Amino acid sequence: MDILLVEDDPSVAASVIDGLENASMIVTHVSNGKDAISAAATTNPDLILLDLGLPDMDGQDVCRIIRETSSIPIIVLSARSEEIDRVLALEFGADDYMVKPFGMRELVARIRAVGRRSNQAESTATTSVQVIGPLSIDRRTQRVRVNGEDVYLTPKEFDLLAHLATDPGAVYRRNDIMSEVWDTNWYGTTKTVDAHVAALRKKLGNQDWIEAVRGVGFRLGITDS
Ligand code: CA
After folding, report:
1. Is 98 helix (H, G, I), strand (E, B) or coil?
2. Which domains are present in the chain?
3. 147 CA to middle of ligand 1, Å?
4. How many angstroms separate the alpha carbon of residue 191 from the centre of ligand 1?
5. 3-class state of residue 148 by DSSP
6. Each residue of 167-216: pLDDT tens digit?
7. Which of 21, 23, 94, 160 could disulfide-link to 89, CB 3.0 to 4.6 Å?
């Protein structure tokens, strides 16, 4: 795997590079946000490790900017350990989050897990476009349209919508959604699900398409007419 490491602390960078190279990964290292954005576009890595505290920009903005044009998996590395930051990391499009200091073994495992999920998303998406009434979901290109108009979703918003659309009308429990869409690393914050549902409703332009089932979870409420 080709990894883009964005980290300004030379000692952290050195140990991460060492650990990843031992795990047979190829690492490109940059130490500021500006270089990260250009390297993400030009070197086409399989995954980005992104420190949040960078000298020139906030890592959150770097993540958002990369997300505008790319769905490369991003794991955020940060010393900030408050729950609010975990939720924020999801909100701005990260796929996973590691709090410093972390062990190399865990980092390598997370990289492989995130990489596997994104490969699966690519290879299992053979039945390309699902159409439900005015909504179409293309799992291969991760494109969503409403009445033929493109709707831009973050990768997690897409995953959430695609998950609910697996069986339209069926009720999905909050905790199951958490573990399917966010993996179990994100223990305890089902508020994240609510935040993403709210964002999805807004972007899809119809509040009724994702129905809340009180005390249980959510279902896709679009009828195919
Ligand atoms: Ca830093």
Report:
1. strand
2. 2-122 (3.40.50.2300), 125-220 (1.10.10.10)
3. 44
4. 28
5. coil
6. 888 999 988 888 888 875 555 567 788 889 999 999 999 888 999 999 88
7. 94
